[in-house]
Fold each of these.
Amino acid sequence: MRHTFFCIDGHTAGNPVRLVAGGAPLLKGANMSERRQDFLARFDWIRTGLCFEPRGHDMMSGGFLYPPCKEGSDVGILFIETSGCLPMCGHGTIGIITFALEHGLISPAQTGRIRAEVPAGEIDISYEMENGRVTSVRITNVASYVAAKGIKIDVEGIGPLSIDVAYGGNYYAIVEPQGRYTGLDDLTASEILTLSPKIRSAVREQFTPVHPLDPTITGLSHVLWADVPKGDGASARNAVFYGDKAIDRSPCGTGTSARMAHLADKGLLDTGESFVHESYIQSRFIGRIEEKTMLGDIPAIIPSVEGTAYNTGLNTVWIDSSDPFWKGFQV
Ligand code: PYC
């Protein structure tokens, strides 16, 4: 049996985005969060087949468009990547919206604004389009907040660390320069890939974050190594680890949101200030705190993140059950 997926491939700030424009399964659920659970239960082979080798690679991520469930939303988005289906993905949204507009999968709104329903909630998107090309997308993201502070861990290879956990659509362990971590220039990519899962496991042993309003959003998934910027005009730099072997090539939209919540909590970033976040490869997102809010009784921010995506081609991908690697593999 051969399944065919029509994909629009590209990247946002260097990180891959595969928009699956044809071949999406019909999902059950009254919102994108329930559809995410249904996809994971019944169709996870599509994610692993499209994201893992030999059709994908360690950084592969993307998503599907669905009709929205919620009144007032224009489109629903389901994200896929190597580690699962994220509740929210910033670079993914920027890419998906860019490619969907450029290929006519969604019609440009006269207002230049789109409201999208994602598993983590609803987000507002504004964009600039010139001659059929989307030149920038800004996401006003879900409410972001600091979930835990000062978790003490001791990790082989880097020693004692104090970690804060913040949410920006996914939960991030934030590693600020301290002790033997003096900055990203002192770590090789291979050291980041070795140390990050150890840090994530050590934090997981002590703390399981659960979203205060949506218990289906739970668990620490990412590690954000924070540092001072390298390039002129940037506010900060990061290396974001996700899945089992990925360093985000983009500055990470949900990571940037989590980091802005973290800095706001420390009194180091104010509403309206621009936060230019540089990635591991020095690509950039421009973040901003739009407003302060509350998540239940927890202080939170509404962050926005702006970036640009580029379409690299169209890709018809087959997943054929006679292929021994139809579900993909990871080494
Ligand atoms: O941009 O939010 C993001 C993201 C999550 C994982 C990789 N990128």
Amino acid sequence: KILILDFGSQTTQLIARRIREQKVYSEIHPFNISLDKIRELKPSGIVLSGGPCSVYDTDAPHSDPGLFELGVPVLGICYGAQLMVQQLGGKVERAEKREFGKADLSVNYTEGLFAGLETGNFHHQVWMSHGDRIEQLPEGFSVTAVSAHSPYAAIRHTDNAFVGVQFHPEVAHTLIGNDVLRNFIFGICGCSPSWTMHSFIEANVQAIREKVGNGKVICALSGGVDSSVTAAIIHRAIGDQLTCIYVNNGLMRTNESESILRFFRQKTKLNVIDVDATEFFLGELAGVLDPEVKRKRIGLGFIKIFEEEAHKIGEVQYLAQGTLYPDVIESVSFRGEAPIKSHHNVGGLPDVMKLDLIEPLRELFKDEVRELGLELGLPEEAIYRQPFPGPGLGIRIMGEVTRERLEILRQADVIVLEEMRKAGWYRKVWQSFAVLLPIQTVGVMGDGRTYEHVIALRAVDSRDAMTADWSRLPYDLLGTISSRIINEVRGVNRVCYDISSKPPATIEWE
Ligand code: XMP
């Protein structure tokens, strides 16, 4: 495996993904991980990420320099390369000209990181983003590539075990990025491309069996990808020792609960208990306008119902959760923001229920979860569903959630999804949905004045929901959705399109 030490770069996660795409397992750890912990993890190679600081700042993040004595190859990227230089006795200074964006790289070394790449006058497009630069190399180092403003754009130690690049091989704009990373992990570190979803399943099925023994596991199914894949791999390991619980909170979309249950019962062998708690949830939400109060009531209500069902099953030792890798990484944050978004539908469970957790997806990114799901035999329509929030339509109705307003939103939402699918846009966007606004506006229908509800459309592009931009849907598609909603949904006379990005807006409206 390859360890990535995070110095706070925006692209640290990308490094991990790029390496995993080469079928080599990689893990991200904070820059100050102890040497003992590194030894314990037995890496074949270590990558030092970029970061926003200058190595000579007094509070700059430093990893233990003992790292260079472990006999493990190290690749420094940007800040990571500068840190390597500084810790091994070279010099880094503020650059006169900062280098941001595309740069031309000339390579003068044909082995190590650059094996197989053109050298000499040939220019490779790379992506730079740095204000400091290496001014003097430590002993035993030599330069292997230059760019206009970086006389030491890439460096290596005599036996190639320590290498550094000033550019970012993990970003798509660095056209030789994958070559460089491949040369590091295969050529220099000697890894083999053996990390596949198939091997992941084998290893995890084994681990789950060992952990659970004859115990019982419960899992909250939502119909979303993460919980479905979690249930599927655990079921592969321990069969009917797993019981899944599906709670219908009355805030699902049209026919959604029915189709989720039909799917699990007909297409999988999972043992699913379903509870229709619509009355209970609508009661909890009556009169509630505040979004946070809504979220809390829905979250706590979920825990209450889930717990009641779990008790009916009897002695249960484990709770399965679909936690993903981005929620687990202890990302280094220099801006003080918490990198983790806490979600509310399952987040509160472990404390309450005091069950041991099983989180088989902890090491995976979302796209890997999808790949795993397909490998486990789940059909594409279950794998490529857009995310849907735990609190459901409850947080897409601004103001009070009532049966009547749920019905209006459901009708509008079906139209959005139908038209998105029909136009081939459903899978192109991260999410697309309707929101019911708490205002009425004036319109005219036939000869009469109307005073009715407004639906807002929201469609966003995103990689991981941490940031998002509004989707540039074709005008014709927006037009079709709008006129169908206004014509077909009673009580709506106006449709707006939300063109805010996240940040500063969020994807959901509440
Ligand atoms: P926001 O609105 O924070 O949403 O930009 C980011 C992503 O998370 C989803 N979301 C939730 N998912 N429980 C969930 O399981 C929740 O409470 C919740 N709130 C938001 C949202 O749909 C988007 O994909």
